[in-house]
Amino acid sequence: MTTPRTDRSQGEFELIERLFAPLAREFAGAFDLKDDVAALPPKAHHELVLKTDSTIEGVHFLLGDSPLTVAQKALRRPLSDLAAKGAEPQVYLLAIALPDSVENTWLESFVEGLAQDQKQFGIALAGGETNWTPGALTVTVTMIGWVPEGRLVRRSGAREGDEVWVTGTIGDAAGGLALLKHEAATDGAERDYLIARFHVPQPRLAFGLALPEFASAAIDVSDGLVADLGHVADVSGVKIEIDLSCVPLSAELSALWGRDEETMLRAVSGGDDYEIAFSAPTSAAKRVMAAAAGRRTPVTRIGRVVEGSPGVAVRGLRGREIPMLYKGYTHF
Amino acid sequence: MTTPRTDRSQGEFELIERLFAPLAREFAGAFDLKDDVAALPPKAHHELVLKTDSTIEGVHFLLGDSPLTVAQKALRRPLSDLAAKGAEPQVYLLAIALPDSVENTWLESFVEGLAQDQKQFGIALAGGETNWTPGALTVTVTMIGWVPEGRLVRRSGAREGDEVWVTGTIGDAAGGLALLKHEAATDGAERDYLIARFHVPQPRLAFGLALPEFASAAIDVSDGLVADLGHVADVSGVKIEIDLSCVPLSAELSALWGRDEETMLRAVSGGDDYEIAFSAPTSAAKRVMAAAAGRRTPVTRIGRVVEGSPGVAVRGLRGREIPMLYKGYTHF
Lengths: 332, 332
Hints:
Two copies of one chain form a homodimer.
Chain A: H1 10-20, E1 38-40, E2 46-56, H2 67-84, E3 88-98, H3 104-121, E4 124-132, E5 138-148, E6 163-167, H4 172-180, H5 188-199, H6 205-208, E7 217-221, H7 225-236, E8 239-243, H8 251-257, H9 261-269, E9 275-280, H10 285-294, E10 299-306, E11 311-315, E12 321-322
Parallel strand pairs in A: 3-4, 8-11
Antiparallel strand pairs in A: 2-5, 3-5, 6-9, 6-10, 7-9, 8-10, 11-12
Helix pairs in contact in A: 1-3, 2-3, 4-5, 5-8
């Protein structure tokens, strides 16, 4: 870690480095954060998979949020991208820009969050940098992993006739966000579950490793199910039709919002699901189900790649096609 | 590139993506920035070298600075780290956080700066992310390169008896910064040269590639020559003695500040030199000079690794040792 001249005192930065150094202990190529760079030995017959993601105060979290969940969000967003490509994460680089307002106790909890997730996902800190910022606290993570050569699951491989699947449940984070914004109300376990789904992504890494066995295309669902399948449709040059009635909702979200068409449309256009949407040939359905069972990951068939010009068509609860008028789907 | 919900319109973000996509055209593993991740094939008998660096408005640059030089600074700071390790850069990831105040014309020049440097240094954009930020414009670059297996030049290899060298001239950026802060005054070519040295690092990549042939330890000089040699001394567990009278100053800096002891001390404790300081056995001196000549890189012998407890001793112009009272050297 380098520590450019800053408004924090040298002593404070030394403390910060002491906090981060233990996170790098298990990766030899981090050199205890005491060199200019990190070094990563190659892995035979694998290619490297790389993803960088910034998590920004006021955009992805608020300073009042638990520092533990901020750390988790910062690591798990790029982990979810690796999961959707069939990759296995190994190490990450961290660039953190700290405003003066951040207390060392905040940082200690943040580092504890990183440490817990390192354990859970088998990753380690390879290197990084701490800077002072006059602006918003910004955590940029570059996640680095491996995929067997030629086995990266792209967005571009969806083909007419393929079935379209999604892991887990959709819309929970949108429900959690609505609760936090007081646009909806419930309490108890339901509330906790939905808010946790907003704050703490659960990247589908175990299931992701099975994707290369059957998936023709895959994407991490972060902008919203329809928006992200739109990316697959565009890049693959195919039309994807999804059946709203098949989209899996959690019991908690159904209790909050019901299961009418409006709810389903909100669910498929909300963001932050961090599930995996993928296409696979019909002939692979048994393998999909077996992988899901073996890795304890719920999967649901929600649609199909059909003939037509590239895009996503959504079939509503009464079978009619719902026109999606918005372009890009990220703004409702 | 992903574009989370933001205060910029979707159309603006599409424009931004159009700006960045051409930077990724020459690297197949960037997938035209149209997938979740970037993929990098392994390079036989090489290890990967990784460095992440944030360049922040109000810390490393001002919004009034030329966007071209901001782009150059963002890329060249981590390039200089790779140079000091004997590594060859290949691709980079870019995470950019944009406040509303940034105009598209600013971005166009910024991208032009990236494009020029990609050409100059033979690198390409592998992937990235654009976000809106309520705070300071922040550019985080993760630079990725290669070094032949086992040939990474560490900070830890300096040994008693080694000579200590530095490339180029020291203190120019400190002189440029003093001019910008109106703490000093000169004009014409002298002023332009010193300010350019502050704004635009010139990473010593060509010379860096020769380092593994002779260097026992090396470091990128960014915090200040004495501070950075302090890191080498600490990690190598040796005492480094540098002779102030040997430290190379440019004609421009000498004209501005003279060459008295006070000037020399300012030069060795200023930052942003982006030169390489390294140690090498005495027996390697001829190889050092040959590499310097072959790669048109000035090098100067400035000191020696001596017996004593770890740290840096500075011998002044009249031969007496100057006590360096500050710890860490980054704050004068």
